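Tokens in:
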């Protein structure tokens, strides 16, 4: 999810308000005309934003609780939009604009939740944003407590204050500026405590960002390490060990390190169908048999198939074994071997299927099937196939036809 242009504009103006208003209050920026224009812009923009949010809340598909939550926020937005500057009120009432930061925080949180794939980067950017603002605010507060030095100009006073706040926040604290009143000391204590938290947060996040730059690789390495420890513990023979390692490497190459079935199972039914369709559409559409079977069939079958991987030289099954599953080739090459294992009856490639004879004719496997390369297959078991085919007699009769034809050939 990306933020809309409107959201960015409101965030930018809120930030500008967050920078200008404290300066106006503390230093008394000499720009009355400009300030009134700025206040008007804020009023109109925040009011428009309030209308936009209310409309979004009304159209929202989320439950009543979320909606009432949105109305609570609308009250805060309303306060932030109110033109206090038009009334003879103390200037401190300008700080009511800061209520908009509550909304901004909520928006940032939503943005972060929706961009979890780069959550650490987003978090660091947001952290820097708040750090810069907080430093500015604390500089203003320090200026307010200390007062502007009459021997220098406003910029020098502000820069001096910024220098003091940053050196205290970053826990450097040169000690060239020291607090002398109780208020100043209390402020500095607060800054130091904040500084320690900020420092810890920054270090912790940068460290975890470095280790989590590629979570898929971390997952793979973790799997490999576990596997390696297991194989050593059980003294698995070298040859078998190599095949197991190769298998994991294949999963990694094909980016199959994640358990597709487990991820699918964790989703609600509607999303599960969508995702299985997306993952398996490719293989389903490459199977000529299913090409013109229609969308409903594709949806049904996508949900029932689960992925399996075979290594070069692996037998998927051997002739004579009982058969309860049929397979679709997503990627790879396999050979069909005669009962005696001496003749190659056929080669199967991407988009082919096999293992249907045992299911359709209710008999043991008529031939053996062996993988020639790494093979990504999808497997469908007897009861699921029968359930699907009961609804699609066209596809059922085509599978039966091919089964008879192949069994005569074999
Ligand atoms: P089944 O008998 O269940 O198990 C072996 C599978 O090999 C069989 O189903 C068919 O899917 C496939 N098969 C057998 N003979 C041939 C052939 N001549 N050409 C292609 N595939 C075959």
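Residues out:
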């Amino acid at each position: 999810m990306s933020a809309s242009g409107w959201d960015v504009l409101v965030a930018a103006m809120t930030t500008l308000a967050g920078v200008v208003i404290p300066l106006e209050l503390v230093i008394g920026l000499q720009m009355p005309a400009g300030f009134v224009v700025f206040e008007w812009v804020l009023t109109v923009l925040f009011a428009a934003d309030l209308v936009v949010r209310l409309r979004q809340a009304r159209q929202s598909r989320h439950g009543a609780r979320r909606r009432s939550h949105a109305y609570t926020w609308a009250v805060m937005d309303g306060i932030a939009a109110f033109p206090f500057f038009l009334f003879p009120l103390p200037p401190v009432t300008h700080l009511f604009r800061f209520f908009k930061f509550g909304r901004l925080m909520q928006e940032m949180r939503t943005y972060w939740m929706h961009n979890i794939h780069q959550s650490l980067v987003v978090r660091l950017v947001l952290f820097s944003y708040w750090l810069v603002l907080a430093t500015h605010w604390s500089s203003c507060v320090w200026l307010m407590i200390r007062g502007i030095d009459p021997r220098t100009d406003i910029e020098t006073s502000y820069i001096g204050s910024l220098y003091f706040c940053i050196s205290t926040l970053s826990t450097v604290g040169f000690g060239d500026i020291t607090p002398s009143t109780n208020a100043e000391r209390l402020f500095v204590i607060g800054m130091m405590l904040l500084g320690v938290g900020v420092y810890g947060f920054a270090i912790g996040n940068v460290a975890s960002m470095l280790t989590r730059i590629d979570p898929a690789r971390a997952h793979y390495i973790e799997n490999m390490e576990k596997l390696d420890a297991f194989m050593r513990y059980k003294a698995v023979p070298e040859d078998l060990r190599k095949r197991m390692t190769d298998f994991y490497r294949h999963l990694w190459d094909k980016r199959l390190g994640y358990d597709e079935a487990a991820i699918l199972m964790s989703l609600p039914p509607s999303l599960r169908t969508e995702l299985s369709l997306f993952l398996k559409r490719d293989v389903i559409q490459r199977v000529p048999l299913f090409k013109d079977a229609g969308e409903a069939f594709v949806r049904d079958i996508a949900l029932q198939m689960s992925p399996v991987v075979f290594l070069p030289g692996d037998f998927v099954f051997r002739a004579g074994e009982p058969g309860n599953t049929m397979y679709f080739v997503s990627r790879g090459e396999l050979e069909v071997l005669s009962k005696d294992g001496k003749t190659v009856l056929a080669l199967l490639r991407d988009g082919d299927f096999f293992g249907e004879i045992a299911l359709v004719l209710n008999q043991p496997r008529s031939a053996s099937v062996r993988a020639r390369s790494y093979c990504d297959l999808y497997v469908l078991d007897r009861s699921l196939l029968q359930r699907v085919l009961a609804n699609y007699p066209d596809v059922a009769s085509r599978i039966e036809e091919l089964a008879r034809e192949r069994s005569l050939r074999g």
